[in-house]
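Preliminary data (for renewal application), iron/sulfur cluster complex.
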Amino acid sequence: MGGIKETCKKHGKESLRVGGKILRVDLTSGSIHYEKTGKYVPRFIGGLGIGLKIMWDEAGPKVKPYDPENFLMFAAGPLTGTWAPSAGRTTVISKSPVTYPVNHITHGSFGGHFGAELKMAGYDLIVIRGKARDPVYLSVKDEKVYIRKALNIWGTDSFQAQKLIIEREGDLQAKCAVIGQVGERCSFIASIISETGHANGQYGFGGVMGSKNLKGIVVRGTGSVRISVPYDKIQDVYQNQWKPLLNHGGSVVPGKGTWKAGSSDICWEGNPGRPVIGEVKAQEMNRTGLRCNASFEMPTSRYHVKNDGCFGCVFNCFSYVRMEGLPYNIPPGGQMMCQQFGSYFAQHSWDFKKLRVSGQAVFAGKQLADMYSVNSVEMRNIRNLLVYLKNGHGKLTSLQRKELDSLPWETEKTEENGLPFIWDLTNKLARADYREENLWGLLSRGVVRAACSLGVYEDIYNGIDPKYGLVFTNNGIAAHFAPRVSPVIALLWMMENRDPNRHDLSNISDCERALNRRGEITEKLFKYKGITGPGETGNHLNPGTIFFTKWILTRGILKNSLTLCDWVFPNYLSPFKERDYCGDLSLESKIYSAVTGHQVEMEELDRLAEGIWHLQRALTIRDWQTRDMRGAKGYRAGGMGDPGGDFRGHDNLAALYFKHPARFYWAGRKYRFPPLDRQKYEEAKTMLYRQMGWDHNGAPTRKTLESFNLKEVADELELSGLSGD
Amino acid sequence: MNESLPQRNNTCSQLLDRRAFLKSSGLVAVCLGVFPVNVLAIASGIDKKTDQQKYAPGIVLGNPGLCGGCRRCEIVCSAAKHPEEIRPESSLIKFDRKRFDGLFKLFSPLWHPDTCRQCKEDGDSPWCVNSCPTGACHIDSKTGIRIINQETCIGCGSCVEECPYQMPLLDILASTPLAPDGAAAKCDLCHGRPACVSECPSSALKFYTPWVSKINI
Ligand code: SF4
Ligand code: SF4
Ligand code: SF4
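Predicted structure:
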């Protein structure tokens, strides 16, 4: 049995207490040992917090992403595997091969049931280091941990690999996180896949896994997660006060949604029973999981079989799609999310009616991306970059041109499929070697590095025709949402060292718009005017937007530490008129207190999260080896596979956002937003740094770090001359 | 893994066979229908007037057409029985344990929780009750619910073995002097107010009570 057997005080019975352990695996030596989580909590909360602390202590700036010394961590948090809604997520932490221009430590996460299973097996984190000589997978079954040979599994796609691993383990309840062929090739754009659609897509952690010769991890836990306040004591509060509020995440206003999911005519057309879901009212606690529908309005909505949820979720926002008769033996069924349609966004436009491809191609493209474990959001950028190159741009060698022409371009534009194109492209990426200079090798380094090598980076940086839809952050991460739409998004794009997207802003503004109360609810919650006001553009910077940016950054860290889902928390809005549609921002701390027994108020928990955010900032500074995060001066690139050259600092945006207006379609409407004002943004950064307690260039000062109990971080930064003034 | 815990005897190959069978019989399509076929099958064989006394007051059934697989039913079932821990393994509603394709949510959307059928009194059925050597597993005389008295259970595992649906389990969290490795546990319909049903966010669980007159809730 997993975990420590102990005697329950109340019942005098033998009981199981699990969690509380960190599993450390060194693939080079094959050594496996355990560490108590206690020394990191509650200071670092759990999940991401602990991962970043281990990174700070043990992974210096010299460690390269594919060095055996790099860590790969799968982290669960204090709420993972409990009754807390959406507590099924796993946070992944490592040094990313794809971030640009510097390979820095960052984090992503994925849903499904892996994280909860990890907790049941008795672990809060799996920390992997080293490199196996032959392909292996890691098998964790409660306290039994083995590194097993994976020779016959290597080379399979991620679906097949999970099947083979589970069959070999002989336990149908086991949960896997694996890579497919693209991960095995150590591509910088490889993802980690669990089930058929839960992906840690961005950051290239699949490539890190491949570099360690680690095909997958399989976890099975039969223990329990102990909760501090017994469920029967908290049940009433949870059921009657918290859950009715939480049923409102994901920007769905019952009956008034800008999202179709709230309207009366939604039907699961791919389901033989063809259930008509209809409007889900606020009080209908037993139907909250029917309302989200990732396939809505997409070309695949006709094939939506049912909703799919992660462990403990109350929304079940994934879409299970089934399409018979796909070519190339692509499996007919799989889970998908809105972003996994990515491979087919030819334009930076969410006007699905204008998409030129069929539902079949969209879904097959998603299946291929997940099977081969390639980041589907990056696939969109790759495809768009290829179209740009095909139109005669860039400096390609004649061989590269030939490679470009060898794609089945005649199918790229056809309404009917477009599928041969994506099939060919994915297969080429699955055979590519990132060390080579051919087109596929360059693309395996991610779009930004490829664009540099092919001589189109400056074009893209300064703005090309938006119809190409190439969108990535200053850190080289394929992104969604647009900075020119809101100053909060623009600032998040500058500050984050990962995919800057959090759903906070869109959740609020979608609901406020639907309720015709723009700006009012955020004003009530935060006492700031104009965070989400009407007529807002990227240049409406004010103290409220600065505050809210910091809030989102901190709460983002909190979600990945506890682990909770970005689509469910924080609880900004409620469906109830009596509450004036306001949610409860302290739900995380209330649930955390009930589950862990560590009584904290909202402010205290937020402060712990803020400490972790400073730690992450310090890590970024250490990896970048500069304290000039503002990036006024140029920065010399030095990451893996870099073509060299001068680039702009970390807290920055591509020049195009300051030069050109944004024009796009969303949900059938046309939008235009003016370019951002560079001067205003320099001032905004100053304001934000001040709020954070950082210096003029965005480096945390000793005083700030010490006030967050991070003296050791301040000391080390000072030694390397990286401390803020 | 504790040796005394029931070993699942579904091997992958068996399950794969079953999938092949289901495919050929077209059951895949039927199973996804909104109205669970198993309810129909159970209901159609019943002559309410004469047989009423032989049935439990109700039955919880999962609908594969709606179930999103969030396992909140397992979470609350485990919490209802052991409020201080969450242990899906101790849950008496078993999400996707007898899956059709042998793999967790891979390749098939048929996932849904399996529930105790509260079997009719008829020959050896209910198997759990009739196989119990101590009478711990019994039919509650007031409510008719098939139920286990964990104080008198000796943890022999007969019910676990005999139930054709593999619903009872030896629950390590419920160890008693008589059954130190865990007394048997099975769904007791939460004495008429099933926690799993009220928690399901997808209306995929229903408490069917055609004979509800037998129970005073
Ligand atoms: S709670 Fe409902 S939707 Fe979730 S697994 Fe159970 S039956 Fe399925
Ligand atoms: S435990 Fe098994 S045999 Fe007993 S009533 Fe339930 S389904 Fe029937
Ligand atoms: S009715 Fe109660 S005991 Fe039975 S499965 Fe549901 S929650 Fe568990």
